[in-house]
Design a protein that fits this description.
Helix content is 29%, strand content 16%. It contains five helices and eight strands, in the order βαββαββαββαβα. The strands form four sheets. The protein has a two-stranded antiparallel ribbon. A two-stranded antiparallel sheet has the order 2-3. A two-stranded antiparallel ribbon has the order 4-5. A hairpin with a 6-residue loop joins strand 4 and strand 5. The chain is globular and about 55 Å long. InterPro entries: 4Fe4S_Fe-S-bd, 4Fe4S_Fe_S_CS, ET_IronSulfur_Cluster-Binding. GO terms for molecular function: 4 iron, 4 sulfur cluster binding; metal ion binding. This is Putative electron transport protein YsaA. Keywords: 4Fe-4S, Iron, Iron-sulfur, Metal-binding.
């Protein structure tokens, strides 16, 4: 799997917690399109193998390849949030952005023929709806730095607990 190249917040999934229920897809399609249709979602659940499932959404890459690849300048990236926006007056559905995205996080809406990309539910007061609805808390809206810090804390905690467990004869 490709590591994120972002300083911005994005939705990340912990595959150890994801059960593949697709609720994230359904709430996304409902929030964005008013319909429960996993094919209209801007987040996708992906079965990596028989037991490993994860969800993929836009990683708000710095110097986003999708923006660079767009021949019509239909995609732009917000410098403060990293959110990729699609200008419907310029997008012609050529799908170059899809080819450029290493995460497979962009789709073309079959009805409008426009690119669709996760925007972190920027217009929703309580943020990404998929993160809120995930029954296993597998989704998180975070930055790579925040994830790294959490991982370091977890490793330190585990390393401090291990010697104590080894000494405890119970």
């Amino acid at each position: 799997m490709v590591a994120s190249t972002s300083k911005y917040k994005y939705i990340v999934c912990d595959p150890e917690l994801c059960i593949g229920c697709q609720l994230c897809e359904y709430i996304c399609s409902y929030t964005k399109n008013g319909e429960f249709n996993s094919y209209r979602s801007r987040i996708r659940t992906v079965r990596v193998d028989e037991v490993l499932i994860t969800a993929v959404a836009c990683r708000t890459c710095e110097n986003a390849p999708c923006v660079i690849a767009c021949p019509r300048d239909a995609l732009s990236q917000d410098v403060d949030t990293g959110i990729i926006r699609v200008d419907p007056t310029k997008c012609d559905g050529c799908a170059w952005c899809i080819e450029a995205c290493e995460f497979g996080a962009i789709t073309i809406n079959p009805r409008t023929k426009l690119a669709e990309i996760c925007d972190g539910c920027e217009n929703e007061e309580d943020g990404p709806q998929c993160v809120l609805i995930c029954p296993k808390d597998a989704l998180e809206y975070t930055t790579p730095d925040q994830r790294a810090q959490r991982t370091r804390r977890k490793l330190v905690k585990t390393s401090l607990e291990f010697p104590q467990k080894a000494k405890d004869p119970r």
